[in-house]
Design brief:
Length: 526
């Protein structure tokens, strides 16, 4: 009976449960709709076309970013994968790499230090974080890469770092840099902290050789990162560092906002109880650790390492800015790592907590999370259907047509859904936010941009169109105009739409008009 029970509560079952719950919303519907996901898919399509060298007409609008920049790994993977499978399935593979990889490496880090069977239940919370709904794919990949790098560094910390192992660590650090620069700097700091914590435990630890190994594996990606952050920026990039009030930062922690997916007001009613469970577990654990210190028992290395990681993440939340003028979300990224490190530290010490209290606390933890999972799955259904309908319309569009969106959708989550129109045929969508800055692999080709017209009216003459990119080269009519239902066209635009455009598609959120008099595109671009 005891053997059967031990198999039932095996930590591998909890790992499988966490992975299954993380994968379920991704696999359940044709599209896993996120805020920025459509923009990433669209720009990956453009990137694939540019890399192929066949899309000459795109070169008039887009160019590859010459900088070896972070925040591009996901785009290049999507660009390559779509040559093999449909791009919506490439997106699913990218998300699944996080949904599978993150719980897996959390489990591996936990299994290195303990045989506690219930700690893996903590990892259920990482499967549907705030960043997944936002579509921050590069950041999510960087989280998995950080945990993988820490695992292999920990695995080899007491062994000889062979050339093969050094090469793998270099690839992991370089991949983390290409995924997200914030996570990369955090990873380098964590590796240094790992060496320091070993020194604090064991004065005979060969820290010189470990520090030298760390220098060898981090030198290239650190050099690239320093070059990127010290690059001269153009006048269109505003770097105004902003800090959140201390009360708002504490509220972000108390409500676990890094794990809110769709409905903030409803989800925090459940999430706000989870920090209380963590605090109660921490009190029990600290009490047992103080008893060990009083008995002059040496503290394990992992206790010091993950404890320092939790402290530094907590302090970083209040020291580092929330934003640099763009959508940096630094604070919520730090709080996300703070909870991961805290959960890991607790899971490694759960054996010090009375068994009955462990079971009750973790059952409450799981009981609070399961309603969130099912609620998020239901909420993602309607937007997935909408995404599928929009991409289907995009299949009917001709390649390299210019598309001008006017207005914005009512639902914040569908703000970039217009990009689904360009994931099959490379339509040129004129409000491409990724192409307007230096943080993505493609940019507007400003010297070559055509001078755009709506019929014979210059685009830049209308105030409500000032935010769209416009050049000075050859004149080019806008082929398609997408008008959201909540946008009110002025009299001039209404007259142009009635006389010179044909309504081709009408949905609950927008109408799509096609220019009647556009000339046939040159066959050399087809």
């Amino acid at each position: 009976m005891k053997t059967l029970l031990s198999k039932i509560v095996s930590p591998r079952w909890f790992l499988a449960l966490g992975i299954a719950l993380g994968c379920l919303p991704v696999l359940l519907y044709p599209f896993f709709a996120t805020l920025d996901g459509p923009a990433h898919l669209y720009n990956a399509k453009i990137l694939a076309q540019l890399l192929s060298g066949n899309a000459l007409e795109l070169l008039e609008f887009y160019q590859l970013n010459a900088l070896f920049i972070p925040n591009v790994l996901g785009h290049y993977l999507l660009a390559v994968l779509q040559w093999v499978i449909p791009i919506q399935y490439a997106e699913k593979l990218l998300i699944l790499s996080y949904s599978i990889g993150t719980p897996f490496f959390l489990y591996k880090l936990l299994a290195r230090q303990t045989v506690f069977r219930w700690g893996a239940l903590f990892f259920l919370v990482v499967t549907t974080p705030f960043f997944l709904t936002m579509g921050f794919y590069n950041f999510l990949m960087s989280v998995t890469l950080l945990l993988a790098t820490l695992y292999y560094w920990e695995l080899w910390s007491q062994e000889n770092l062979t050339k093969k192992r050094l090469f793998l660590l270099i690839i992991l650090l370089l991949s983390t840099y290409l995924a997200h620069i914030f996570t990369f700097f955090l990873l380098v700091g964590m590796l240094g902290l790992h060496v320091l914590s070993h020194v604090l435990v064991n004065r005979d630890y060969p820290w010189q050789s470990r520090a030298w190994a760390l220098l060898k594996v981090a030198l290239l990606p650190v050099a690239l990162a320093v070059r990127f952050v010290t690059r001269p920026v153009g006048p269109d990039i505003i770097q105004e560092y902003q800090w959140l009030p201390m009360g708002e930062l504490f509220q972000q922690l108390l409500h676990m906002e890094a794990f809110v997916s769709y409905d903030h007001s409803q989800e925090i009613k459940l999430l706000r109880w989870l920090p209380l469970i963590l605090i109660l577990f921490t009190v029990f654990t600290k009490f047992q650790l103080f008893k060990s210190i009083k008995r002059k028992e040496p503290l394990p290395h992992h206790t010091i390492f993950w404890g320092l990681a939790v402290i530094f993440a907590f302090l970083g939340l209040f020291i580092l800015p929330d934003s640099d003028g763009s959508a940096g979300y630094f604070s919520i990224r730090i709080s996300f790592f703070f909870f991961i490190f805290w959960i890991l530290w607790l899971a490694l010490h759960m054996a010090k907590i009375p068994n009955g209290f462990r079971i009750i606390g973790l059952a409450a933890w799981a009981g609070l999370l399961f309603p969130l999972f099912w609620s998020n799955i239901n909420k993602s259904k309607s937007v997935s259907v909408q995404a599928a309908a929009i991409q289907q319309i995009g299949k009917d569009l001709s390649p390299y047509q210019t598309l001008l969106p006017l207005g914005a959708p009512d639902n914040w989550l569908t703000h970039h859904f217009v990009n689904y129109l360009g994931i099959h045929n490379p339509v040129i969508i004129l409000n491409n936010y990724e192409a307007a800055n230096d943080y993505f692999p493609i940019k507007w080709n400003n010297p070559m941009l055509p001078r755009l017209y709506v019929h014979q009216t210059p685009l830049r003459e209308w105030n409500h169109m000032q935010g769209f990119i416009n050049g000075y080269r050859r004149p080019l009519p806008v082929d398609l105009i997408l008008v959201y239902r909540n946008f009110q066209p002025d009299a001039t635009l209404q007259a142009l739409l009635l006389e010179h455009f044909l309504l081709t598609h009408s949905t609950e959120t927008f109408r799509l008009y096609n220019y009647k008099n556009q000339q046939q595109k040159s066959t050399e671009y087809q």
